[in-house]
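pls design
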């Protein structure tokens, strides 16, 4: 739960407008907002910020995905929001519907957020939505309800980390086990202080998100605002297997390097002894081979130092998400 005074709402609107402008959204853009408008800050935050920039905001929300794609074409939307998983799913459906995104859609900017992604997911979203062909790209935004909502940090057109708005928020990186501060460029848990909030001014709030801060200047010139490369994992997502702490995001990054992999699911089963780690990957039947399986397992081993079981499954057999993805299944 987050509380807002009227001034808080105005401040949040302003920082969201700044964040969206940083991604490339401009006055005259048509923004299809596919974050939820229920008890979730995403929908309202993007709506307020988009309107403040001067964009026309279509309050679509979540669901009716095929109709959404038709609306993207009919309304000539230039910006789309949503989680990376939902943008990815929309891209899959666009291909299945036989739509050429470069010729039939007008999308230029995607502003995903609310979950982790990989660079390969970014590349596929940009390709499947036709973003690069229209001079834009997919630019991640970060936020959390306890810090107003989305807008705390966002990528610029150089897509090399999200700028943290230091005049609103003070970030720190600490050791997730001891709470001790870590040095520049060290990876740890993100701790945030909201410097401007009136109704709910949280101080040194532990986000449980794992990241680091980059102080090298960005080509865009925003020298006052350090960057974070995204959420590399969550403290409470990690699990121990064969004596190794595993972040599912590390496995995801390696899986998505393979063009053959369409979707995946990680199953950690503690109901059996010894514990079982299974990775299911969607791969078209004609592209499956022992060599591909071995290559995928080697990549996972490099990332997390264990070799799970790997199972090829049919394309379309794993769940798809219109909100935050749940690719990790823990059985206890």
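designed seq:
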């Amino acid at each position: 739960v987050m509380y807002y005074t009227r001034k808080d709402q105005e401040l949040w609107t302003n920082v969201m407008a700044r964040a969206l402008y940083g991604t490339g959204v401009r006055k005259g853009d048509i923004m299809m907002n596919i974050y939820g408008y229920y008890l979730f800050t995403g929908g309202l935050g993007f709506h307020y910020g988009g309107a403040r920039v001067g964009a026309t905001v279509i309050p679509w929300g979540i669901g009716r995905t095929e109709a959404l794609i038709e609306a993207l074409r009919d309304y000539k939307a230039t910006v789309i929001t949503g989680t990376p998983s939902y943008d990815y799913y929309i891209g899959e459906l666009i291909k299945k519907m036989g739509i050429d995104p470069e010729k039939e859609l007008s999308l230029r900017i995607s502003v995903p957020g609310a979950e982790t992604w990989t660079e390969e997911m970014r590349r596929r979203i940009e390709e499947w939505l036709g973003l690069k062909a229209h001079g834009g790209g997919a630019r991640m935004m970060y936020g959390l309800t306890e810090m107003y909502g989305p807008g705390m940090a966002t990528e610029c057109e150089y897509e090399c980390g999200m700028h943290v708005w230091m005049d609103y928020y003070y970030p720190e990186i600490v050791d997730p086990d001891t709470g001790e501060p870590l040095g520049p460029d060290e990876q740890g848990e993100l701790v945030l202080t909201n410097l401007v909030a009136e109704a709910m001014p949280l101080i040194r709030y532990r986000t449980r998100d794992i990241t680091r801060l980059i102080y090298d200047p960005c080509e865009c010139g925003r020298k006052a605002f350090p960057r974070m490369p995204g959420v590399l994992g969550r403290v409470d997502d990690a699990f121990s297997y064969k004596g190794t702490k595993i972040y599912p995001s590390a496995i995801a990054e390696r899986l998505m390097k393979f063009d053959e992999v369409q979707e995946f699911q990680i199953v950690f089963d503690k109901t059996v002894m010894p514990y079982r780690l299974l990775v299911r990957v969607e791969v078209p039947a004609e592209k499956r081979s022992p060599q591909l399986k071995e290559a995928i397992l080697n990549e996972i081993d490099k990332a997390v130092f264990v070799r799970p079981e790997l199972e090829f499954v049919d394309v379309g057999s794993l769940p798809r998400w219109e909100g935050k993805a749940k690719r990790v299944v823990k059985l206890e």
